[in-house]
Design a protein that fits this description.
single chain, alpha+beta, six-stranded mixed beta sheet, 28 helices, 46% helix, elongated
Length: 725
Amino acid sequence: MGLTEYTFQNLFGEHLDQKGNLFEIHEIEIPIIQRDYAQGRNNSNVMRIRTRFLDALYNALTMHKKMTLDFVYGEIKDKKFIPLDGQQRLTTLFLLYWYAAQKEHINEQDSIFLKHFTYYTRPSSRDFCEELVKYSPTFVETLSEEIKNQSWFQYQWYNDPTILSMLVMIDAIDEKFREVEALWDSLTVNPCLSFYFLPISEMGLTDELYVKMNSRGKPLTQFEHFKAEFEELIKEYDENLSKEINHKFDIEWTDMLFPYRGDNQIIDDEFMRYFFYISDILFYQQYPKSPLEQDEFVLAKTLYGSGCPKQKENIEFLVKSFDCWCNVDENSIDEFFSKFLSGQHYQIGKVKIYQDNLNLFKQCCDTYREYEGRNRKFPLNMTLLLYAFIIYLQNKSSVTETDFKRRIRIIRNLIWNSQFEIRADGQRNNMPQLLEETREVVLHGRLLDEVGYNKNQKEEEKKKLEWVSANPNYVDSLFHLEDDPILYGCVAIIGLEHSQNFDRFRMLFNSVTDRKLIHRALLIYDDYSQTAYGNVHYMGNSNLSTWRDLFHPTNQRNGFERTSNALNCLLDSLTDFSDKGLNQLIDSYIEQQHQKFDWRYYFIKYSETLCGNWGVLCLNEAPYDWYTLRQSTFRGFNWQSIARAIYQIAPNKFTMGNWAYMQYEPLFIANTQKKIMVKNDHFEISENDCIIQSIQIPQDENDGIDIVDRVEYFIKVCDEFFFVK
């Protein structure tokens, strides 16, 4: 037996259940476990939903189009129907029928069924419904005011949220339907509004279990109204498909989402977030110049309504995007993601995503379209990564699991190295291209030449595909290197031609506790810095992010190859990858310097020459006049590098000023106002803005390179002039 559609009026009476058994309903009673009537609340979200719902009812009733308001579930006891789901819709229908009966002066006998709708939630709500049915308004003033002015309206009812909500809805119905004629006929003679009704006994549920599954006592959700309107949208396209999707809403998709329900024990919010996610993907692709639509009803009509050129394709993609999670082969969606992804540690055959939560689907259902400040809780990189999994699940017949494991690694590498390319704001919306490239990689393993993901990373991934085929014994070593949290999948700093250093790189950065030692050791082999704006140099430091920036090529800086060469030279030469091993290498270098001391020597010997957290320096007067920036911009506060080295060696003899903005902060002779400025070839000592002494630094007259350690030399000179009595 198929499902039977009921109107609010004909729900009262005799019926046959799905098994052919007769049952009667003489009364509808909203049980005490139900929440208050909420469709009349005055917060912005409910007002928007109320308007949409009444618009839908208005269109159905005035255009004489059938509208099905989803399923209503409940229990039948002693010929009394006790709804457990559908209370909000039933109450709105009760008010609408009451309004039509009063507005059109319907015979009391024809509307007598309204007397059998009541609230058990609280006595005041029940009494209000009884009085309302008996009351005939004049329609001269606002209905709610007219009702509140009646002698039977009790003052304490102002404390009943259900009554207050009903009054708001009555006014909203009046405003919407005031000019509509023959409203009662559209509700009763040729009824346009209906719903499916099932006793919970036919669903195999007890009322106790059903209560646990539902949102009793919780605020109204968007989902309750969205489903009804969405069903009507699909019905315009295909009525059978509408019924099929409605069934999926209530059974398959609910079962699939049920493990991810929130604290309110329902999946409404989770469903809406995932609906927004899928719809936003389609919107990015089909309306790339427009900002995302924020209203779910408008979004649904735009993408799935009859006015959309790709209505059929969009509906199919939406359905498949829900269905694919119902059909995962593993026992759970958690296990599915665990097969392909790892969190903070490398695992053979998996791809690291540097976070503990591997279930991207759950993360999307929990946080999509939510923000922390200006940051998306479910960021665009995760939007693309989850999309890759969806495309795979929808095409498992043509994409093998082995192929996908390799391809999802490529996508991870592209995503994590395209932070400047992944944009979805206005005219810089790259999401259509990024989504297309993701799809192409998943389905065919091809990398497109068009603008989308980072061009350098795409070229690296193409080379890796060839390299992996030619070097199968090094594949695990390469993948392990890719997963390093400094590299995020980009191995350009090592280069595929230096496979002997794949593991050595990880040994170095995982073993050394003081990363500034790596900076000093690299300078032994070359000036490994990268430059921008002419005199701004970027080096590594204690901060891991400075190394990450250095090891990822960018058009904003020059010298990446120089950094790569110095790093590979260091890795080739090291035998001890600990702090001790690097210190021995540095000490050996310093011991061998006796005759000439270039600027690198000072940065290698004196750790305080690079004292900021960002590894950013400016070279003012080549080659020795360096200053270190506290911030990652040349407009930041700074210290003169050599002055910091002098202070490091003799802090009891000198004092160092605080950071200075856009100028050198000088070194001072301790306990004096004598200011020391470090120049390229001399030290300048001044007091009260007058130069009192200039100390020339011995240098090779041919190349201007120091022939003494200027730090030791200056301290020695100061000892003679200022400290030795």
